């Protein structure tokens, strides 16, 4: 039987992920997922592990106040409050999108600038300032926080097992940074899904996920693989016209709570 076998949230874009037994959904996907982002202080352009693999070792997790707790080896932990939605707005760029979002303040910026060893700012996106998803996929009112393009990413466990077998060693699912992991299907069965239901919530499968150099960073060490694995192997059998695909982007139609172990129903 198909079931939800894992839930992951990434509060800070390109920071460490956290495994959850349950999670609430809102308009932007998993509550708290990728609502924070690092940007270059001068240009406002977003930063990720693609250029800064060290970010994989940065823990930025939700705390009891609803804000963020920053921690890393050799650094004292810092609690960051959610900034006011309409104060200290900063112009930022993520891919082709430009938007104005609240800055989290100097203390967070100083802490993170020391960690990444260059001047950066930490920003937050409240729902009213969220982006819309890519035109031509999904619906006009679909929104996304600071994820690359869509609110949720799903991967089948069998698909990870398949690439692990081809690479010749077990691969950590966190290399691919999904929100939802499904067990019980064949490898890459998710490629053919259009709509699914988990619990009381329905999801639209809107687009395959094109993978990049970020998958070659070991999430446990922050070290990039010299042989460019698993991306190199993925390119031998998952490369399509629009990229090397692994996983499916989803949009949730409605809110609700997800729990690990819930059955998954393929609707279309």
UniProtKB/TrEMBL annotation:
Q: Name its species.
A: Pseudomonas fragi
Q: What is the protein name for this chain?
A: MOSC domain-containing protein
SUPFAM superfamilies linked to this entry: MOSC N-terminal domain-like (SSF141673), PK beta-barrel domain-like (SSF50800)
**Upper lineage ranks?**
Bacteria, Pseudomonadati, Pseudomonadota, Gammaproteobacteria, Pseudomonadales
PANTHER family tied to this protein: MITOCHONDRIAL AMIDOXIME REDUCING COMPONENT 1 (PTHR14237:SF19), MOLYBDOPTERIN COFACTOR SULFURASE MOSC (PTHR14237)
Highest taxon of source = Bacteria
Q: Which intervals hold domain MOSC?
A: 125-267
What's one Pfam family the UniProt record gives for this protein?
MOSC_N
Single GO MF descriptor: pyridoxal phosphate binding
């Amino acid at each position: 039987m198909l079931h939800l076998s894992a839930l992951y949230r990434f509060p800070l874009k390109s920071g460490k992920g956290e495994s959850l037994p349950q999670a609430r959904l809102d308009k932007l996907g998993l509550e708290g997922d990728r609502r924070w982002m690092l940007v270059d202080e001068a240009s406002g352009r977003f930063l990720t592990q693609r250029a800064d693999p060290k970010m994989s070792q940065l823990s930025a997790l939700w705390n009891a106040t609803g804000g963020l707790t920053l921690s890393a080896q050799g650094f004292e932990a810092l609690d960051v409050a959610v900034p006011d939605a309409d104060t200290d707005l900063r112009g930022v760029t993520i891919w082709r999108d430009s938007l104005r979002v609240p800055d989290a303040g100097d203390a967070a910026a100083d802490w993170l600038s020391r960690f990444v060893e260059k001047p950066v700012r930490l920003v937050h996106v409240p729902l009213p300032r969220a982006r819309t998803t890519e035109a031509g996929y999904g619906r006009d009112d679909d929104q996304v926080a600071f994820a690359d393009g869509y609110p949720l990413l799903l991967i089948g466990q069998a698909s990870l097992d398949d690439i692990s077998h081809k690479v010749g060693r077990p691969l950590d699912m966190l290399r691919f940074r999904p929100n939802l992991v499904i067990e019980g299907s064949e490898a890459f069965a998710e490629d053919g899904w259009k709509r699914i239901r988990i619990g009381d919530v329905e999801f639209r499968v809107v687009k395959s996920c094109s993978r990049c150099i970020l998958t070659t960073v070991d999430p446990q060490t922050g070290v990039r693989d010299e042989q460019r694995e698993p991306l190199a192997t993925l390119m031998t059998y998952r490369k399509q016209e629009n990229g090397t695909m692994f996983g499916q982007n989803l949009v949730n139609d409605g809110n609700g709570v997800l729990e690990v172990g819930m059955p998954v129903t393929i609707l279309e």
